[in-house]
Write a structure and sequence with these properties.
six-stranded mixed β-sheet, Immunoglobulin-like, 19 strands, elongated
Length: 310
């Protein structure tokens, strides 16, 4: 049997395992024997009576396995007086093993995960008044799409990609999002979509002849042996006019600015011409006035000269 251990500083000693006071262990032993060909996953958590927050550990599990969970609890009290319980979620578990070495108490729970029903959170709890908790969270591997929205243009072709780096899903399914409803994409019903599943760890959705109606959320879902995982990919489809909008805005601003300048120049020139015409008119009037005054002043002199000559 292959054994896999997590990277923790705790080294679990040889435990003389004793059945919990709830039940004996025939059912669990039968399951462990039945699935003895499965690999063994061993995980540990360390707690003390002074722990202020629960200790948690995330465990990624891709395939069915035998599981051994061990919680190490350090206390200055009598370890035999410490109340110990195991839970799956809020459900009380009735089979666990105990051992004590000095002031350290070990609580161990062994079971087999063969389907999604056994996945979830398993907790060891020590004490009553001030309860110390350690929790193991079992999850299937994550899948990854594109973190940022994928931006493309009308009538283009795009490819959406989802990957699972540490798993080989049994199958992949793509969905488009219609509001809050996920609609499966059927490549048999439309030539618009092509799904490439040549690699077990990766899936590609090709969308051709994009329109603005294709914009939205797309979901890839991986079916794994112990559950499902899904990831969202956001697609943004732009019209070709969209990139031109900033340029058109700048052009419009320039045109308006030029129009204002031309209007101001025209207005200034007209105003200046009007002022010049006014000055010219005043000058003409002034000349006429001067000429008129000159004639009037010369008339008496002329008459005076005539009388003298007589």
């Amino acid at each position: 049997m292959m054994t896999k251990y997590s990277n923790l500083s705790l080294e679990t000693p040889d435990i003389s395992l004793t059945a919990s006071p709830f039940t004996s262990l025939p059912i669990r032993e039968e399951m462990m024997t039945k699935y003895s060909n499965l690999s063994l996953e061993s995980h540990n958590i360390s707690l003390t009576e002074h722990s202020r927050v629960p200790v948690e550990k995330n465990i990624t599990l891709e395939r069915p396995s035998n599981i051994q969970l061990t919680c190490q609890f350090t206390t200055h009290k009598d370890v035999n007086s410490v109340n110990v319980t195991w839970k799956k979620g809020d459900e009380l578990l009735q089979n666990y093993l105990l051992n004590a070495t000095g002031n350290i108490l070990y609580a161990q729970y062994m079971f087999t995960i063969i389907n999604s029903e056994q996945m979830g959170s398993y907790s060891c709890l020590f004490g009553e008044e001030k309860e110390q908790r350690g929790t193991f969270h079992f999850k299937v591997p994550e899948i990854h799409g594109k973190n940022k929205p994928l931006v493309t243009y009308v009538r283009d072709t795009t490819v959406l990609i989802c990957k699972c780096q540490h798993c080989s899903p049994l199958n992949w399914t793509w969905y488009s999002s219609n509001g809050s409803i996920q609609v499966p994409i059927d490549v048999q019903m439309s030539d618009k979509y092509v799904i490439d599943g040549t690699s077990a760890t990766e899936t590609r959705l090709k969308i051709t002849q994009l329109s603005e109606g294709d914009q939205g959320s797309y979901w890839c879902r991986a079916a794994l042996r112990l559950g499902e995982r899904e990831e969202r990919v956001e697609l943004v489809v732009l019209s070709y006019l969209v990139p031109l909008k900033p340029f058109l805005g700048i052009v419009a601003e320039v045109v308006i600015l030029v129009a204002i300048i031309l209007f101001y120049e025209t207005y200034t020139q007209k105003k200046k011409k009007h002022i010049d015409d006014g000055k010219e008119f005043e000058q003409v009037e002034q000349l006429k006035s001067d000429d008129s005054n000159g004639v009037e002043n010369n008339a008496p002199r002329h008459r005076k000269n005539e009388s003298v000559s007589q």
